Records
---
Amino acid sequence: MQDDIMTLRVVRRDIQTNEIAVIDLAAESGADLPAFEAGAHIDIHLDEGLVRQYSLSNPPGERHRYRLGVLLDPASRGGSKAVHERLHEGVQVKVGVPRNLFPLDGSAPHSLLVGGGIGITPMIAMAYELRDAGRSFELHYCCRGRDKAAFIDELESAFGDALVMHFDDEEAAQRLDIKALLGAQPADTHLYVCGPTGFMDWVIGAAGQAEWPHSRVHSEYFSAEVDTSGAAFEVEAVASGVTVQVEEGMSIAQALRAAGVKVNVSCEEGVCGTCICEVLEGTPDHRDHFLSEEEKEDNDQIAVCCSRAKSARLVIDL
């Protein structure tokens, strides 16, 4: 067994709102699990080549379990469907150790947490960590309707006045006015947002219009549309000694794998960072949601599952 892969058992499964599976994973022996911080996720190995990332939503101080909330997505590429069909109580599953690509900034005087739909899951862990540390925060939960919102009883009990809920099908006055919310924040507030792509783009766009610096806007995409349009280009994978032509409609990863090169991919949507490679020559056309704007400007890394090239040729360290 790899050091970073564990076999855990589903010890509890609760279906909320008819479309969200809340799942607790624990060690067969009952031993403590590796610690995690708010914002962390784990890789769930559902099948050969089918690995998906799910945020941990339980209080970070807990070591006896990892809790996930998984929405059954009608447009699922296999991940959420597999979770709902296979991960029943008693089932074993291979799980990666927690990784945190969405950490809280400990210097923030106030934190604004905004979760849309199932994007509430990492926000719950963040809210617990902030509450338990006595730090200032507010948690906004946006959903299509109260009947579509999971975790409500827990959130109301745990976070009281720090929690504000917004439902699309209720009166207009309680819906999220993102411009007003951002404008009412104390100086140097840090914003954290997670949810569907359109929702996140809306919130992040409003922060940009309000001239919030990138350093105070934190986000994590669950999924994203992959755009592989554009002219063909050449990619040389130096370490593998392979050069391929990447045609329109094809990803770099697909072209390399077709040539026999092993490429580590997971989400295949440019959100998890698994496939990031070093760029040695050429100019990437960044289409991922993982690298920061500053990292993209450096042009020395690329997400090969989705990004393309502005130059006719790229040389990567793979």
---
Amino acid sequence: MAEYRPIPCSLHDELQLRAMRRGAHTVEWSDDHGARRSIHGPIVDVFAREGVEYLRLGDGLEIRLDRLIRVDDVEFGGAC
């Protein structure tokens, strides 16, 4: 697994707000193989585990924050 690269605080705050609101959001990210993925659903948590930050969706899917490309209209820069 690639070394984790923290996202800017402003983007982290944006994710926290969306998690608090519990509405459905469109999340795009790059998977472990570099393929672009997309899902629409509620963001339920933003958390850290073993020094890596993650986003958890309502279906239980966990996505590393440094792999996010876009959440709704907010660009994250497409890590990986």
